[in-house]
Amino acid sequence: MAVVMLAVFAGGYLVLAGADIGMGMLLPVLGKSQDERRLVIAGIAPFFLGNEVWLVSTAGIVAGAFPGLEHDLLTGLFPLFVVLLTGWVVRDMGLWLRGRVDAAAWRSLCDGLIVAGSWALGLSWGGVLGSILFGGGMNAGSAVGMVLAALFAAHGAGLARWRLTGVLVERARRIPSSYPVTGVALVAVMVAAGARLSLSDAASTGTALSATAVLTAVMLPLLVASQALVWWTFRDRVVSPTYL
C-alpha cells in the first residue's frame, strides 16, 4: 500500500507542479512585456502552493516508509537535490516578491528568478529521473535531464493553452504540446523510474510502515478534494493580474 501511495503522490506532483514549472520555464517566451509576464504568472498563482503539497507528502512517505531510499538517493544524487531545492526556493521567492515593489528593475529581477528557478527545477528533476532510469549516476542523469526538462516545458505550454487568453495563448499554441499527453508521459517516466528502485529493501518495518500507509491513505482524498475545489474556483481563463 505504501508503494501505491508513493506512486500516487509522486505522480500527482509531476503532473500538477510540472505544469507550473513548465510555465515558469517559458515565461520569457509567453510574456514579452512585464505586464504580459504578470498575466502568465497569474495563470499559475492559484495553484503552485497546493501543487507543492504533493511533493511535501511524497517526501514524508519516503522518510516514513522508505528511509533506505532516502539515504540512497541523497547519497548518490546529492548535488542534484541541492540544485532542486535551491531552484524551488529561488522560483517561489521570485513569485512571492515580484509584486511587492513597484519598480521595473525589481520586476525584471524577479522574472529572472522565476525563470532560473523553474529551469533549475526542470533540469534537476530530469536529472534525478534520468539517473534512476539509466543508472550511471549524475552523468547519465545530466544527459537525459535536458530531454525531460523539455517535457516539463511542453507540459507548461499545455497548461498555458488552458489558462491564458489572446496573444498569450496564441504563443503557447506555437509550442507542440497537449496537457493530457505530457501528463501521461511524466507519469510513465516516474513509473519506469520507480520500477528501477529496490523499494522492498529500503522499506521500514512494522509500525512505521503501517502508520505511513494509513496516514497517506487518509490524506489523499482530502488533498484531492481541496485540489479539485481550487481548480473549480479558478477554472476560468486569466484576464487580469493577481496579487503576485
Provide the structure class. Answer: mainly alpha
Report mean pLDDT, rounded to a whole number: 88
Form type = globular
Distance between the termini: 39 Å
| Percentage of residues assigned to helices | over 70%
Helix-strand pattern: HHHHHHHHHHHH
Uncertain residue segments: none
> Could you tell me the radius of gyration in angstroms?
18 Å
The fraction of residues in strands falls at under 5%
Number of strands: 0
Number of discrete helical segments: 12
Give keywords:
244 residues; mainly alpha; 12 helices; electron transfer activity
Describe the overall structure.
The chain has 244 residues and is an all-alpha fold. The protein has a domain at 2-77 and 148-233. It is 82% helix and 0% strand. It contains 12 helices and no strands. The protein has helices at 2-25, 27-30, 34-44, 48-65, 67-76, 78-97, 104-134, 137-163, 166-173, 179-195, 199-202, 207-233. Helix 7 crosses helix 8. It is globular, with a radius of gyration of 18 Å. The protein starts with a helix and ends in an 11-residue tail after the last helix. The model has no long low-confidence stretch (mean pLDDT 88).
